[in-house]
Amino acid sequence: MTTALTAILVFGLLVFFHELGHFSIAKLVGIKVHEFAIGMGPRLLKFTKGETDYSIRVLPLGGYVKMEGEDETSNDIRSFSKKTVGERIAVIFAGPFMNFILALVLFAIIFYNIGGIPTTTIDEVIANSPAESVGIQRNDQILTIDGVAVEDWEHLVNEINTSEGEPMKIGLLRNNERIEKIVEPQKEEESNRFMIGIVPATEKSFTLAMKGSYQQTKMIFIEMFGFFRRVFARQATTAEVVGPVGIISLVGQASQDGLYNVLYLAALISINLGIVNLLPIPALDGSRILFLVFEFFRGKPVDPEKEAFVHMIGLALLMLLMIIITYKDILTFITG
Fold first, then answer.
1. I want to staple 208 with a disulfide (CB 3.0 to 4.6 A). Which of 78, 117, 225, 286 is the partner?
2. Cα separation of 229 and 122, whole Å?
3. In the annotation, is 159 catalytic?
4. Region 68-76: what's the mean pLDDT?
């Protein structure tokens, strides 16, 4: 029961922010919005404010913002189709963009509340490590490596790891005095990375939390594009793809490990949702943007009914794919 409730809350949060992006920009540019819905299927709750119905529906998967003239011909001056190409692209892009914003916020919450952000000040020197052997001490602040200013802990780790064990000249600040040490990084067999044996001090800071959040989001973007490269190279495996059942299972596992694990998984899923939605696949936001770019260069729009038909076919294929992935997830769940 807890797993199901947590999964519904996670899905609801992701969908709400995605649709809020579409809704906010649509309202900003003056488009008439008939309904803002979270979930699919029959309505559970509904209220009306102004010209827009707000509803929560039975199935906690997906949602939509129903705009005048989005998938049909409309002569209303406030219809989606009457807005400029730039305004319509902004409305469509705002959904995935809000998923990225949500991920940044969730990661920032995690980084701020769990131990803070690692800094370039040393909290601990590991015994019998290269750092200890040359006299690096606790509370030393690392300023430079081979004359290059160290930007943050991630930069420091990357510089050490790419040294391939070659001696490095490390500039330190100790008691307001600048000193230098020559260190030879050693390779750790377990991680297969070069290290000098130091543990960073951490600092709770909103600015640092946002910086750490940005770096984490960037890393996941890189991993996602790496996955797409493997897909096109036919090197990806089915184990790397999960559907709703697989996600619910992951959410359940995360919920057992605490709130911050759930938030981390929600941020990860949010980034994936944003990126996938920008793919040029019919029925997804990326395809709608592609149609609008085509309209811009063509000088006139594609027939709304023909475009709607393309998206309908795309949606049917996506639903079929979702069924296949869900079947795979269920088999994986049953077989353990």
1. 117
2. 38
3. no
4. 82
